[in-house]
Write a sequence for this structure.
């Protein structure tokens, strides 16, 4: 048997062997993923995600409230400034008329 014939035999066995290994690992993987321990892990991870979501939503609500306060304060400042400028402009107009 020369080297080429030996290589062809190995190549012929490689694909079915890889397929069989894939089926074996896939079956074992499904068994592992559906085990009680895995379900417990999934449950704990989901609970952690829900706690994180709650924390993030609380922070987002606080930020939104602060932004609303800042916006209201800015509007008040601008209204005060606008009213002050109106008074100044009115007094300038009165001085020009006199």
């Amino acid at each position: 048997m020369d080297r080429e014939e030996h290589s062809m035999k190995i190549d012929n066995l490689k694909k079915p062997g890889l397929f069989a290994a894939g089926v074996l690992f896939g079956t074992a993987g499904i068994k592992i993923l559906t085990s009680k321990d895995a379900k417990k892990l999934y449950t704990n991870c989901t609970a952690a995600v829900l706690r994180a979501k709650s924390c993030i939503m609380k922070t987002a609500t606080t930020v939104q409230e602060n932004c609303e306060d800042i916006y209201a304060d800015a509007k008040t400042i601008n209204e005060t400034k606008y009213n002050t400028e109106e008074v100044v402009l009115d007094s300038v107009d009165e001085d020009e008329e006199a």
Q: What stands out?
A: DSSP finds two helices and no strands in the chain. Residues 38-74 form one domain.
